[in-house]
Write a structure and sequence with these properties.
By secondary structure, the protein is an alpha/beta fold. The protein has one domain: Lysozyme-like (3-Layer(aba) Sandwich). Helices cover about 35% and strands about 15% of the residues. It has five helices and eight strands; from the N terminus they run αβββαββββαβαα. A six-stranded mixed β-sheet has the order 1-5-4-7-3-8. The protein has a two-stranded antiparallel sheet with strand order 2-6. The radius of gyration is 17 Å and the shape is globular. Bound molecules: zinc ion (ZN). Zinc ion binds next to loops.
């Protein structure tokens, strides 16, 4: 009986592990761009694009330095290899959306109710396949923790100010999400 219980628990944790993407925790490094917001209700995921203005547009440290200078951050950053960095705990409000409105409902200040994910790509270099894979894995795991009703791009919620995520293939994204 004990053996079967242990076997069952091991199999269960294996399944959970298989579903959770590998995440590199950078929350100890990022001490700007967020604030605690107890009991916040998350039901939105916002997808962004970002890159470093330095020599290498895909330098994680360069992007973080820019975020620090502007006092902004997202919860997650996905680099070109599809590595996922956690910058801000999901419980906290991260400053990634700015002035924003959810078109479906007219709700404002979406930082309070969203999780922000940055893809490293530029207006002329589309996201890598590995980034799509990581993004979909990450959002599927977020959906296990929060009742996500809206997955939007930054340009959907701030159309006059923002055009990211750049060169993002929404059709491919939704196909991967439903697979
Ligand atoms: Zn953005």
């Amino acid at each position: 009986m004990k053996f079967y219980l242990i076997l069952f628990l091991s199999l269960t944790s294996l399944v959970v592990l298989a579903q959770s993407p590998n995440i590199i925790d950078y929350t100890a490094k990022v001490h700007w761009g967020f604030r605690p917001l107890p009991d916040r209700k998350v039901d939105v995921v916002v997808i962004h694009s970002t890159y470093s203005l330095g020599k290498n547009p895909f330098d994680v440290a360069g992007v973080l330095e820019q975020f620090r200078q502007y006092g902004v951050s997202s919860h997650y950053l996905i680099d070109r290899d599809g590595e996922i960095y956690r910058l801000v705990p999901e419980d906290d409000e991260a400053f990634h959306a700015g002035k924003s409105v959810l078109p479906e409902t007219g709700r404002k200040n979406l930082n309070a109710t969203s999780i922000g994910i940055e893809l490293m790509n530029t207006p002329t270099i589309a996201p890598d396949q590995r980034q799509y894979t990581a993004l979909v894995e990450l959002i599927k795991s977020i959906k296990q923790r929060y009742p996500i009703h809206y997955i939007v791009g930054h340009s959907d919620i701030a159309p006059k100010r923002k055009s990211d995520p750049w060169d993002f293939n929404w059709k491919k994204f939704w196909q991967m999400m439903s697979a």
